[in-house]
Amino acid sequence: MHSMDLNLLVALDALLAEGSVAGAARRMNLSAPAMSRTLARIRDAVGDPVLVRAGRRLVPTPRAIELRDRVRAVVEDAQALLRPEGAADLTVLERTFTIRASDYAAGVFGAGLAAAAARQAPGVTLRFADQGQEDVNALREGRIDLDIGVPADTGPEIRVQALLQDRFVGVVRQGHPLLQGDMTAKRFAAATHVGASRRGRTRGPIDAALDRLGLSRRVALVMPSFYAALLTAAASDIVAALPLAVVARAAGLGLAVQSFDLPVTVPTITVIQTWHPRFDKDAGHRWLRQLVKATIVETAERSGEPAG
């Protein structure tokens, strides 16, 4: 490059991450024409087109692909260098944190997190995002601050902290006939079931456990979330199998449901929080991670589940 301009590096990082002028402009809060002019400056400085048109989209040149990781590392180092490492002054902190979480985590822990944040840092907003796109690049590119959920495919650099161990229990409406008598695997399998799967799956660990006993169940309904399955069970004779924390939260709010231990053995759930190392020394982000950990541990203790 000619003279070093950190803003050009930041813009190049955004362009390579978004793959479009419009997307990079939104990311940097610039107009599309301004970003186009910045791209022209980058092309002049690098001596390469960087992004070229392929049909209706832009694709990176070999030189841009070569630069991508190096530019990202330089930008991250610069941001870390300019970020204060001291404790955050929570009384004046005004910041929006984006937390990607399943309906399980948001529903069970969201209210407690909001209450604790309001007490400690009234200027902070917590924005929960759906886990429909569970790509690790959202952490790498800073589109989310924290990811809460079950272990998934994380990059080697991503920080991971265990928060909670939970287990599945059966759930039915109060007074359900299945609650009368011993809860055997055969009686459980003979009931009509509702499944909870964002991907629409009708089989899972419970079905594998029943298979080993020579049994099978009928999943007549598949819901996209735990809470939809929970409400279905509360309003019918259909049986659901859900994490204990979800059921305990609902019962505590007065929903007329009752849980029971499953008559088959299924794996427990490990809930983790993950973040990118760029936030390791960020005082506000460190406070957020500690808040999440403390809130989930407290919630787990109330429901009788072991924290991570």
What is the CATH topology of the largest domain?
D-Maltodextrin-Binding Protein, domain 2
Helix content: 40-55%
Indicate the overall shape.
Answer: elongated
Average pLDDT value? Answer: 87
Count up the helices: 11
Poorly predicted parts: none
Order of strands in the sheet with most strands: 4-3-5-12-6
Considering the protein shown, what is the CATH homologous superfamily of the largest domain? Answer: Periplasmic binding protein-like II
CATH classification, class level of the largest domain: Alpha Beta
Q: Tell me the β content.
A: 15-25%
Organism: Inquilinus limosus
Family: Belongs to the LysR transcriptional regulatory family.
Protein name: LysR family transcriptional regulator
Domain HTH lysR-type: 4-61
